[in-house]
Each structure stands twice: as structure tokens, then as C-alpha cells.
């Protein structure tokens, strides 16, 4: 007698499981988009006479330390402490020093670039890291993208440029010339540094994804290795880079909110790179620009125009083309 299994019985279970998984991913990505989008408006709220009253390098150190401590607590809560009974191999831990070094390098490069271009030019040109990340993702990880997916990433980069361009204050050229800080300018060194920044940004994301996926270790343990190097490297940078402010000078509840949000985002990004892809990270960053604009309108009084609808539609079209 031939027995045919009733595959329909498991279908509702599978549907509910997939539905719960989709909801979890939706909540995770939505939270990341909101945190990314609120970063710039929160920094603006901390400014006094146009300057941030705290030491930015100390913020990075505290963020890395917070992520390290949360990863340690998570490792204990999940009962995965058995992996700590034997000392890890140097060949197992060493790869995590590379992304920590690349991220620390880019954090300092952002500060250096401000001397060779205005902030608005930086905001527009930094969208080129979408192209660099996609190219490195394809070549280094061997991921072949369809033509529609390359077109989607092109739309995503175009949406970033449009959104950045829409925030430029070009309506009063006389005022822009009167105030040096508002003039649009970029030097040859600025272009070179921007290319380096975009390549390093893409390389850091792709390399981190490769390391997280290639090692069969608990994600909390991988985060411990990654953020231990992050604390050490950024701590050294903070120690050697001269600053006019002390380590915790100028901290307020807004600064602590920024630190908490960015620490949470770093941990959530590890989940995306471990179980998703670096391309998802690009969509999160692009969507966060829209949240940034809305929060800037609601909190800071930024005036939105109909031009704002163009990057919104481009991001929506890009998501449809890439994930269909």
C-alpha cells in the first residue's frame, strides 16, 4: 500500500512560523531605521552655539563598551558560557580586529574630511558608499546580483543624493558667501578622502558579514570578540587624539540617549549581517534618511517640500525591484 503524506497539515504551522519570523524582522528593521534616523536630530539638540558640548571620541568608546557588556550579559543569559571554558585560538579571534580597525579608521576620517569639504557636500557624496558596498558585496562574497537588483541599488543611491540635495540651503547665495561655513566647496584631497571613506565603509561591512557567517559561534560571543577590539582601538584613539573637553564633559540625557541608541543599533546590525545581508543594511540606512527628514521637520522645524516625495518613491521602487 502506498502512503501519501498529508503535507497540508503542516502548512498552517509553517505559515504561522514564517509570519512570526517576518514580524520579528519587520520590528527589528523598523527599530534600526528609527534609531538611524533620529541620530542627527538628537545631535543637533545637544549643540550649544552651533558646537557639540561633548567629546565625540569618548562617545564612541562608551558605545563600544556598552555593546561589549551587553554581549557578555547575553552570552550568560543564553547559557552559552561553555564556549569560554577553553581559551580561544588566536586564529579565531584575530579576524575581528580587522573590522574594528576599519570602523575606527573611518570614524576619524569623517572628522578629517570636514577640513576639505563642507558638511553638505559630505552628506551628498557619502551616498557613494552604497555603490562601493554593493560592488564589494558582489566580488568578495561571490553574490551574483540580477540586473534588476543593480538597478535597485542605483535607485537607492540616487534617492540618497536627492534627499541630501533637498536639504541644501541654496536659496540665499549672498548669505552663503558671507558665512564661510555655508559655502559649498570640496578640494582634490576631499575627493580622494571621500573615495577612501566609501571603500573602507563597504569593506568593513562586507568583511564583518563574512567573518560572522563563516564561524559557527554564538553571535553574542562573536560580538564580544568584535567589541573588545573596538573598545581597545577606539580607547587608544581617544587617548592620543587631543581634545579640548574632558572625557565626560558636556554629557546630558540627550547624549546618553544617542549612546544607548547607537549601541543598540550596533548589536541589531550584527543580527542583520549574521542572518541577513549587507544589502539589507543599505536599505535600512536609506530609509533612515526619510525618518531623519520627518523628525527634523517635527523637532527642529525643517521645512519639507514636494521634492521630498521623490526619494521616498525611489526607495520604495528600489525595495520592490531588489526583493521581488
From TrEMBL:
GO molecular function: pyrimidine nucleotide-sugar transmembrane transporter activity
Membrane topology: Multi-pass membrane protein
Domain of life: Eukaryota
Stretches that traverse the bilayer: 25-45, 65-84, 96-116, 122-140, 147-166, 186-207, 219-241, 253-273, 282-300, 306-323
Subcellular location: Golgi apparatus membrane
Family of the protein in this entry: Belongs to the nucleotide-sugar transporter family. SLC35A subfamily.
Name under which the protein is recorded: Putative UDP-sugar transporter protein SLC35A4
